[in-house]
Known about the structure:
Elongation Factor Tu (Ef-tu), domain 3
Amino acid sequence: MFTGIITGMGRIAAVQPLGDAPLHGKRLTIEAPVGYLDDVGLGDSIALNGACMTVTTLLPAQQQFTIDISAESLDKTSGLDAIGPINLEKALRANDRLGGHLVSGHVDGLGTVTHFEQVGESWELRVLAPQELARFLAYKGSIVINGVSLTVNRTTDSAQGCEVSINLIPHTVENTALGHLHAGSKVNLEVDLIARYVARMLEAAPPTPR
């Protein structure tokens, strides 16, 4: 489990194919901030842009670690197949503060950035989410975008999906990889965990007798 509070901004330094066939995944080498890996061990979970991954190799002298990502995960996520900046979050510990909201690290779908511009001292980020996620998105509800726990300021439904508007303070833009987004960027989305369970309970509820 995670909270959506980014604990470090890293960088994918290398992408190595694990085979020649389309069914093969890739091995990513991640550069982490100085000291970030001091309490990390082999097999630990770290979310990369919101996707929970397992540490397979530690290279402390280089402040690097590796993860293996399957072809299925690559197909269902964005930003995990090319060199560039990436959001990092270590798994939640039982005594940690829950600064964001409960996050599973499982990507529910891909969104598309439709607008990203500065408004006053902050930034407005608008993302078009797939239609199947629209029912989980609500005004002042929570959403995870590339691993960052954010609050929805506005929702706009259309035939193409649900566009959510987010306000980003300068701290978030400067200390996460969200500052590198632009119109057309694909982003990883995870909807609120509680909303997902409420929807399932309503679907599975027996019909009301008349």
